[in-house]
Q: What sequence folds into this?
């Protein structure tokens, strides 16, 4: 950390600041110019916040040198984390697709979609039982009944289930029933929920908030890791920008950026990322080419009748075709010339 | 609501759509051009979502005509809501200032600040007991002990207390101890929390999420109103943009926009809105001139020692001077020529 | 176009409005509900602006039904435009890579890079002679001397040259010397320049402004098309958002969106789009998978000595490896199962 | 400037970097920790760009300590610049209002509006002769004929005229005819135009680009100052964000931020800043309270017939009432307790 000291600061003030910094176990080092004076803090600064330093009236600005996350960062964990659920792996070269409807609507619906996506090669089933909706007048999900239907679908298809938790009160039920607990974008900074979920011992799928930076996403992951859970998958699902042609702007560069900064697997949600079913396949393929560790895709047997997010859901037929394309693409990327996983690819992949 | 129908749609498809719409109690009316065909839906469309209509494959686009909120909107509630707590009013011409530290740190601190802001004329005391922090390593607030200290401060100064709730599990304690329950920006779309808090019978201060539109803020207020609570104050506290000179970009035009759209009182938080204490007074005065119904301002007796948000906290001395300026400004705005509250002001204030 | 009429509007006012609209050659059609009244305008509304209608005090809101661009839109030009320069094609299934340094610095530099990228398979050479720089103290380009060096490089390698024009005064020189005239992101809405360049008879590469919507990009293309030039390539190069991990946020979904809306070829600039050379290859591959018609990539023989944009320039070695990957990827996408160009791919590509 | 050196950098590489830095007349100073190594550059770094340093492969990151602008910054010019035109001052405590129609449409129109705003107390007349329009089909302004009409209006009312230049080719005409040359938001980074206008010897009104940061605005001003012109007024006119309730989001905090960073006068455009005439008066008053040095406001005698920007134009009657309110507000702010200009106000105003 570097502190820029204000012009006109008295030597006594600097002395006081130095003493304080030393009392924190850090070592201050000076850079002096004609019109600038800086103090560099050497040592373990992970517990020191910028704002703690900004409180001193002689400090003009504080600049961070290293990332604020320790557990989520690659610096102390150079190897990729591989999340493994029922022998299905995500991360470290393993790729997985999570598919299913936005929300569980009925036994027929969830069984039909689960069956279809399993046949096409999806490794996980998604489906919302509790739905965060902008309007109190919209369908809010089937709740516990929805969880029961997901369990039936898991039994019939063998697909592990991924579903969203919205409130700490349901943590016990989720521990019992669910394979991967999803934290939705709107709850990315619901810190009590992150902590509760981090204590369950269950793998977590953490979605990026639509106006959160990548660093904030990794700090939210840090909450979960700090609470004890190491199996965390992060998901880019579109950020909020001025563009209105798409529901969100899918930030695909988050894939290589997160892979540089963190060891956690990162997946892409092209459904929320675009909001239009016609855009989902191209963005899914782009995510694969960008090196994502997986995808989460909304599939509905009758998008025009969906109670939620119909316009961004693709049909099982489109999904089936897309899965074939994904496999074809991954194969191409893994062959010698284009190999994402061989040594040649290193220059433009992870920097670890 | 208007539906644009895709070119090449068959008459049967349109017939099916018309039948469906009629079954919802709505009346479809047609607009036909050479290359365009639209259906306007007449009737109570508040329960009809855009996406419900987008599901139909023959629908190209849906355009809303009226706002999606009924309870929060001015259309059916033309008169301003006046929130009243212990004889202090906010809204409908009444102006109030909520002041205090970002977080409660000790009995000395909160009593000292409470005493100072009361003397300067603040009507409410703010102070966080539970703090949402980006990093798990930052100070998380004193929790229940913080609430106790706020109660002591209330007893000594007579100021009603405003403090943030982060999790439904504390609702009962807040009902008992707190005068105004604050929903923080990060929880603006924590829908289970909105509903729980809306059932407490306590006035609510709802902060706008940093990447939420004004319509989404009013939809979040709608959740609280729908759950039963009518005493809701909304607060603009800065939105996230590309500009980095300020912590957030304070959207002051939200004041007249919200006053046009809604009957709820709207206040401004210049502390989070700017992130720098040197900018707080000018933005507070600007908020008054813009017609805000109140302010919430962070005041700390020793900003350089604050455990949270020190850089944006002003001292009691600066606050005292600011309160004098605010009063002077409000007086000027209420005199004949510049009167915000007289008939002449109407052309540029509320449209109700 | 639909006009929502304000509540309380008098019948005479509506009559006046109807008469006006009819005088423009349009036909007004009514939609009447209990609390809403709308007028739909049927006919050729391409010359009618929203604001022209908003001027009427009885109009609450105007909603556009069709896009404002006629020449750039797909509606009246369903077939892809193929831009062809010296037998090299972009668009309509043809893919091309434009590569070279950010700016021309010396004869050695441009010849060396031109030679390398030609060998690796690039179809065009890029290089800035006139450079728009945020600071007046930064290198501003070699100007006319830079153009001369580009011509030498073209002669030696056979690669047509693409370079940016910044001011109408150089139009004549560009007509003489350049193969594709580039309009940079900062000049996307420099309307006199768009018009001047549209009159040159030269193909144009138009870059999206960092805070311009896709519709605004297509309107800027409309200026060029309206001035007479039909050979226009549009380029997505990252938009400005709150995220700071990348220089811009590359909006890859612009590729399928533009392909739905417009017949013009669309290419991607992963160099400006990310700002970091380590991210360029993954985003280039992602662009190919998303269906882009081409790429423009910054390549420098000594990025650490580059006078401009060194951090986002890749070396000729990395570029060569990337070109192999791109070819491998395109081949995979064109084979039967994953074929971007066969009939099966239609559901998720262009809607024309 | 601080350079963070990558882990694993060899001593020789650092030595080479040190030598290079010394060859630029700078002095490198080291900060060494267990896992970090930094070089601070001491001396005049105003000509050193971040990217020049980022080119070295051993440099992980570069952090600026001081602002990149010398002429526009307050550091070397602590006193406010006061722009003076025909005895009318802006800046340094002097406040001025520029008013008039978006575009000059006819002699009757411009004379009528000019007469009205002069009577209400405006100090300058605005009016566009050359109009940058998103669509080639919109009214593009009267061009040179518009300039002539502005001159007539100036002669009749005595108001100096402010109008926008769009292309360097008209610089000579503007020198002859215009009192203040406006650079519009879309041309804020049209660097050849900035330089040309900076050489005219005419005062310049520079508008902030809708997606440009305050630092970029001041760098654009630096171009003009560097070209020779010292009379520069900067103008905040709304930035582009995700919010759609307003045309732009007016960033009022730019007023105190710019006043801290720069000595140039800063004015506010509440018309473009909001896009709705009903919001203009509250934002104009807010700008005054925030300490702006002036306002630029669109006034039209018949907004519903305006050829451009009618929805955001206020009528002469509303303008007249607003001017009375502004005067009343400024008086209140200048009296003892609320005085913006007395010593007490210092803590929250300019830091110079």
A:
């Amino acid at each position: 950390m570097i502190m820029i000291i204000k012009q006109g600061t008295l030597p006594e003030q600097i002395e006081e600041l130095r003493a304080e910094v030393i009392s924190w176990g850090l070592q201050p080092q000076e850079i002096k110019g004609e019109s600038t004076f800086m103090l560099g803090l050497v040592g373990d600064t992970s517990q020191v916040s910028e704002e703690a330093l900004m409180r001193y009236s002689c400090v003009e600005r504080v600049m961070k040198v290293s990332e604020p996350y320790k557990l989520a960062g690659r610096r102390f964990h150079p190897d990729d984390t591989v999340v493994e659920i029922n022998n299905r792996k995500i991360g470290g070269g393993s790729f997985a697709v999570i598919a299913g409807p936005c929300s569980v609507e009925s036994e027929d619906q969830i069984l039909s979609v689960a069956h279809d996506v399993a046949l096409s090669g999806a490794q996980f089933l998604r489906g919302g039982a509790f739905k965060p909706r902008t309007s109190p007048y919209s369908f809010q999900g089937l709740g516990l009944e929805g969880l029961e239907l997901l369990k039936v679908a898991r039994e019939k298809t063998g697909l592990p289930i991924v579903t969203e938790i919205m409130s700490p009160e349901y943590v016990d039920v989720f521990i019992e029933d669910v394979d991967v607990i999803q934290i939705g974008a709107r709850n990315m900074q619901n810190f009590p929920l992150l902590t509760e979920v981090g204590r369950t011992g269950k793998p977590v799928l953490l979605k990026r908030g639509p106006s959160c930076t990548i660093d904030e996403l990794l700090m939210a992951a840090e909450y979960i890791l700090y609470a004890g859970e190491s199996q965390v998958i992060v998901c880019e699902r579109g950020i909020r920008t001025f563009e209105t042609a798409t529901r969100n702007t899918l930030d695909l560069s988050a894939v290589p950026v997160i892979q540089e900064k963190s060891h956690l697997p990162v997946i892409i949600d092209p459904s929320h990322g675009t909001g239009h079913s016609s855009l989902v396949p191209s963005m899914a393929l782009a995510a694969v080419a960008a090196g994502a560790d997986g995808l989460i895709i909304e599939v509905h047997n009758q998008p025009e009748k969906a109670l939620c997010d119909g316009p961004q859901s693709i049909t099982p037929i489109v999904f089936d075709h897309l899965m074939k394309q994904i496999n074809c693409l991954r194969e191409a990327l893994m062959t010698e010339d284009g190999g994402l996983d061989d040594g040649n690819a290193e220059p433009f992949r992870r920097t670890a």
